[in-house]
Amino acid sequence: MGITIACQPFVQNAIETSGLEDFGGHSFEAGLTALIHSLNTDLDLGEAMAVHFQQIISQLLLNRLEVTQLSKEHPEIMDEKIEAPVFIVGLPRSGTSITQTLMALDPMSRYLRNFESIAAICPPPGLMPRVPDPRIQPIHEAMEGLFSLGAQLRGINGINFMALGTAECQNLMAHEFVHAGWSAGHSLFSHGNWLAECDMAPAYVWHKRLLQVLQWRSPNERWVLKAPIHLFGLDCLVDTYPDARIVFTHRNPLDAMVSGVSMVANWTRLTTGQADIPAIAQWYPALWAKGLKRALAIREKLKPDQVFDLFHKDLAREPVGTIAAGYDFFGIPFSRTTRKRMQVWLRDNPRSQFGNHTCSADELGLRPDLEKERFAFYLNQFDL
User: For the chain, how long is the longest CA-to-CA vector?
Assistant: First the structure.
């Protein structure tokens, strides 16, 4: 019999720890309830995993309290303009990470970093802090510790999990307990299913609020952000950021699903020891087909010059040229410095350095004919 956890002690402990009471609203309670229900019912929750999620939940609640208080003390934060941000959106394993990593090399870009998005938000450091950010080393050690336990994960998420590396902006939405990584990393199926149906508007309110806090002390020309979860909330995204520029990544969905199911299985095996691969292979494609169908319906309502289609095969063949085409599409200057930085990064970070992530549909119990039928709407639209 596993450990059972409850919502209220987390809320009360955050209030007592911080001495603050204003969470900036209570819309987070629906997501927190769904997450805790999933932890209690989808897993035989062991002590290590319970402690892991207790730390995550406690930090998110503390962040809400502290950011709300900071905004009261500095109301000018809410006047920060998030202008024409770039959002990289697409199926998981379709090239979103490498696209963001390359675009983040542009000196004019501001990107979300792992150490500033999965730890304490407040107080945000200044533009040129006098000492190294104290959050960096603990995050680095935690990520290296994960890879020491599961070396094969470097071949799956090597460029995602570095303290100074690019982070998915769903880490901001997590303050409403909206985060697809929890279901993917631990097979929390019911939380993933809840996420696919929930009202994401409050999550984007907090997404913007936290960008404003981060930009207030460390600005740049444009934000470059990414997360596949935006497939489920593209309508809320463009309501929140009407001038958003969308880079929509595309890959043959069977290839993306094979890679994705393997990713979920490997992470779940490491984090819970309870990986049910047939169940993952049944749940994961159905979830992301739903998100993709929803996003494509919203996309039809957007202006043609708001969405750039980036194909995985082009990115693999000519990464710098493909990114440059996106810059040209949006009218963003593509400097010689940016081009050179991308070329140097690609030279110094060959894909093989993280190990190979190879598997087959048969090994994972995926049926190509079924997935072709499931994603027919997508295959036909983009000739994949």
Answer: 60
Residue 301: Cβ-neighbour burial (10 angstroms; 0-12, 13-18, 19+):
exposed
Tell me, letter by letter, the H, E, C secondary structure of 190-254: HHHHHHHHCCCHHHHHHHHHHHHHHHHHCCCCEEEEECHHHHHCHHHHHHHCCCCEEEEEECCHH
Task: Using alpha carbons only, give the angle 69, 72, 76 rounded to the nearest 5 degrees.
Answer: 125
Amino acid residing at 300 = E
What confidence tens digit (pLDDT) does each residue in 294-306 have? 999 999 999 999 9
DSSP states along 243-307? T-EEEEEE--HHHHHHHHHHHHHHHHHHHTS---HHHHHHHHHHHHHHHHHHHHHHHTTS-GGGE
Residues 330-350 have pLDDT tens digits of 999 999 999 999 999 999 988
| Burial readout 48-72 (b: 16 or more C-beta within 10 A, e: otherwise) | ebbeebbebbbbbbbbbbbbbbbbe
**Domain 8-382 indexed as CATH 3.40.50.1820:** no
In the sheet that 222-226 helps form, which strands lie side by side, from edge to edge? 109-111, 222-226, 86-90, 245-250, 307-311
Give Cα 214 distance to the centre of its chain: 17
230 — pLDDT class (breaks 50, 70, 90):
very high
Angle between helices 28-42 and 47-73 (to 10 degrees): 170
Q: Which two tokens stand for residue 357?
A: 């992530």
The two tokens of residue 244 are 């958003």
From its phi and psi, is residue 84 left (phi > 0), alpha (psi between -120 and 50) or beta? Answer: left
Cα–Cα distance for residue pair 189/193, rounded to 1 Å: 6
Tens-digit pLDDT profile for residues 319-331:
999 999 999 999 9
Q: What is the rounded distance in angstroms from the CA atom of residue 184 to the CA atom of residue 345?
A: 28
pTM for the predicted model, two decimal places: 0.94
124: which DSSP letter? P
Q: Which residues contact 285 (CB under 8 A, 6 or more apart)?
A: 253, 257, 260, 261, 366, 371, 374, 375
Q: Are 94 and 310 in contact (CB under 8 A)?
A: no
**Do you know the residue count of the chain?**
384
Query: Contact at 8 Å (CB) between 251 and 93?
Result: yes
DSSP of 6-31: -SHHHHHHHHHHHS----S-STHHHH
